[in-house]
Write a structure and sequence with these properties.
- 43% of the residues lie in helices and 14% in strands.
- It has 16 helices and 13 strands.
- The chain is globular and about 65 Å long.
- The protein has a seven-stranded parallel beta sheet.
């Protein structure tokens, strides 16, 4: 029997990496699955390491790997007794060749776990794994909806353009070799959810996916947690940004160069939510510009602490060269913190282009970024208007309930289409 539009669905949700503190995919998993359960659906998350943080009521089945990139021992050599099957051997061999194995090996393990469980679920939802093992499930008749947040080709190309040596470019190409598999799989998945019109265009252009098979469903923010906190005092001159990874894509170097310009005329400090890596362009830029006394990194903090940091900041910044959506942007806006962002990728869609909900500048332009930051820091009335309008925009457009409703619609459309075939 085919599930109707009003029926509760049984969802097998796939998360090959689930860390909620390392990029938006873990946050997406945590809050989307919770909202699906709150709507009456049943969700079982099949999660790889680092395992996801899930809310009460969401089922969980671990999909253990060798966890070769775990902290504080990344690229570790497992003990011989850890190897249980050929997939483990494949995973280690890929790592030794400088390739990233997890999307492939997770999909192979997942295929084995779901064998014989077709009657337990109405739909599979893959969160940007696109491993080749998933194609076997499609062949077996499973309805598969997959979320593609943005094409990782963008990350690869930006990292290659900033690589300091031919050897580094060679290792990056090898690391990103999984993209060939993901592109092949994405072209065969019947229903893809992406998070913005910008991502939809880029996925079509760079990955060759048919736009007719893509649905845009913006992601959300926990607006009941990320909110203005009148009890938290603003710190004069405080800027805040979130960088889940120390990579060129996040635009930290242009932001630091802008910070150096801004501080010549006023007191300013920058809090970066993220973990610095030694001997990177970010660290070198801080040293070169003499910014060590006004830049602070914080990591491993709770959601409530991040909310407090947003509320302490006079201005939040998203300096990214490209974003498929940008959780940090809507988190800041939800907190009523005025936002300065770039026009990279989907950010104009998220922030709005009117100038009433945030100030936008070209990506990779320290001069323009410094000017916008200075304007916001010097005008308390502007900051108040931007903060209030940003909060309203989030409540109107970017809640997890709206995200879950759009996702369920994609489930039903695919199930109905397969039933007609």
């Amino acid at each position: 029997m085919t599930a109707g539009r009003g029926d509760a669905l049984r969802v097998a949700y796939l998360a090959y990496r689930g860390n909620p503190h390392s990029g938006g995919q873990g946050v997406y998993t945590r809050y989307l699955t919770a909202e699906l359960v709150a709507m009456g659906h049943t969700v079982e998350v099949f999660g790889g390491q680092p395992y996801p943080v899930l809310e009460d009521g969401v089922g969980f089945t671990p999909v253990p790997s060798l966890d070769l990139y775990r902290q504080p021992d990344p690229f570790r050599v497992p003990h011989l007794r850890e190897f249980k099957d050929r997939v483990d051997v494949l995973e280690f061999a890929y790592m030794c060749s400088a390739a990233f194995p997890e999307p492939l090996t997770y999909s192979l393990r997942l295929r084995k776990l779901l064998r014989g469980r077709r009657a337990d679920f109405d739909v599979i939802h893959d969160n940007q794994c696109f491993g080749s093992g998933l194609l076997d499930l499609v062949t077996e008749g499973w309805p598969l909806v997959a979320t593609l947040h943005h094409p990782i080709t963008v990350d690869r190309d930006l990292e290659l353009s900033h690589a300091p040596s031919a050897f580094r470019r060679m290792t990056l190409r090898r690391w990103y070799s999984f993209l060939h598999m993901q592109m092949k799989v994405a072209r065969q998945v019947e229903s893809i959810v992406t998070v913005s019109e910008s991502s939809k265009r880029d996925v079509a252009d760079q990955m060759g996916v048919d736009p007719a098979r893509m649905t845009v469903v913006p992601i959300g923010v926990d607006h009941l947690r990320f909110k203005p906190r009148p009890d938290v005092a603003k710190v004069p001159g405080r800027l805040m940004t979130t960088a889940s990874a120390d990579v060129p894509l996040k635009g930290l170097v242009p932001l630091l160069e802008a910070l150096a310009k801004v501080r010549t005329e006023r007191h300013v400090e920058l809090v970066i939510v993220g973990k610095p890596r030694p001997q990177t362009r970010v660290g070198e830029t801080i040293d070169r510009l003499g910014l060590a006394d006004c830049v602070r990194f914080v990591s491993g903090v709770s959601d409530d602490e991040i909310v407090r940091l947003y509320n302490q900041a006079e201005v939040a910044v998203v300096p990214s060269l490209y974003e498929g959506f940008s959780l940090p942007a809507i988190e800041a806006m939800a907190c009523g913190t005025p936002l300065v962002a770039t026009t990279g990728g989907a950010l104009p869609e998220v922030v709005g282009t009117s100038g009433e909900t945030g100030l936008l500048v070209a990506p990779g332009d320290p001069e323009a970024l410094a000017a916008a930051l200075g304007t916001a820091l010097d005008d308390p009335e502007l900051r108040a208007r931007l903060g209030d309008a940003g909060r309203r925009r989030v409540l109107e457009r970017f809640t997890w309930r709206a995200c879950a409703e759009g996702t369920v619609e994609a489930y039903h459309e695919l199930i109905a289409r397969k039933a007609r075939c």
